[in-house]
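User: Hi! I'm working on a homework problem where we have to compare a predicted structure to a textbook description. Could you give me the structure for the chain below?
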Amino acid sequence: MNKKIFFSYLVSIVVVIAIVVACNKDVVGRTDNIAALQPTNTDDNAGTWKPILLTAPTDIVVAAPIATSAPDYILQISEIKSFQANITSEDQKLINYWSAGAVLRWNEILRDLVAKHNLPPYQNADGTYPTPSVSNPLAYPQFPFSNPPYAARAYAYVSAAQYDALVTAWYYKKQFNRPAPYTVDATLKVLVPKSALPSYPSEDAVVEGAAVEMLKLLFPGDQEYITEKAAGHKKARLMCGANVRSDIEAGEALGKAVAQKFQARARGDRAGAAVGSPTIWAKIVSDCRVRGDSPWVSLDAPARPPMLPVFGKTKAFLFDSLTAISLRPLPPPAVGSEQMKIETEEIYQYVKNPTRERIAIVHFWADGAGTYTPPGHWDAIAAEDFIKKNFSEVRWARNMALVNMSLMDAAVVCWDTKNYYFNPRPTQLNPNIKTLTGIPNFPAYISGHSTFSGAAATILGHIIPERATDYANMAQQASMSRMYGGIHFRSDCAVGLVVGKNVGNYAIQRALTDGAE
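Assistant: Happy to help. Predicted structure tokens:
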């Protein structure tokens, strides 16, 4: 793409985002009016695909449905007709919204929750900083603070649970083979595209059930909002004629059962200890000095503890803890080395001589407080591209899980590296460096943006190979944005991209062996 054209594109995107954020709730979002999901391939064999956490679809028992000739089923058909006799314009909007795809919509809801909670706490009167409490999520600071590692983990858990739930649903759909209600009763109106898939259990309800249970765990203070979204989703599915109530009830129960297994994993994945303690923080600094280097220091006033310094011990999805450590790169240039002086001067020259194009790139990839975070930015990129591919719900879930597991595991390796080397940022080595964006409150090496971007671009290039070069270029640009903004050295960014690509390759290995290709 021509540089001038691409620069204009970036500026237009920044303007669109600013308008959406600044204006009222009636502003039309980028996916509000997309067409109803109509998969080019229903992936009939998805019940045989390899789950992520479940050992097999039969781990969850789904009861056999009642016959379509049973009186209760006929009553359920009548319920749909009664809904359809009184559909309002608002009802039609609800149907249109949810018909775009259950995985798409619940991931959008998740990103909105991440943005809402991506706010660092303000200091206490004594200069210390409070920590959000899961046991009292509505107290200040509200739980969670959905910073990049927390967000990456949230995206991964929700997507992975949706995928395992849908693989299980596809297994039981094929086993029970109950036809959709509009096949049973030809007089029924159908307000969404028809599907050849059996309707029991409902794939929409499966996604809803899994998402709701995971979101209640991850965002416990937002249960009323989450429940309201779920009610609208189920109502839309009934009104449109795609499912009878028993399809939905079975699907929701299945989704919740799968989510409970992921909740159990989440409670034991060590992320709860990621904040660390003053003793752990002091040891990280001491270890850095013992190695003969200068440690990173917080430039917040008062000094803020590093963000989740023990997140690197969190249990990854795509590999074990020993592999996570093996992915830790070699150390950065020593703080007093000639190489570090050269890299510091390079960053100083970038911020001293900014260009309109570089400023636009910095802002486009900033992903700071109040945003989806860098992992969420890539989650949104994936979603917008997947819309164009007309994937089935189960393939949507599979692909989102691959992307988001790579992003979470990139966070694990990145945060392990950051807090092992505890390397300063450019502003610490040269106070004359005035950044073009906020200074993150954690060490520099390696760049989180670069690691996230390298991982996401790698697995996305596998999923949509015709876009592989575009994704690689986007990852490179996201990485360079941190240098242009004055907050990372070249070594942070270059090595981060390599580490991210290594993580993304593990997602590709899984993709090649999960039965979906």
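For your comparison, note the following. Residues 1-28 have pLDDT under 50 and may be disordered. The chain is about 60% helix and 0% strand. Good luck with the assignment!
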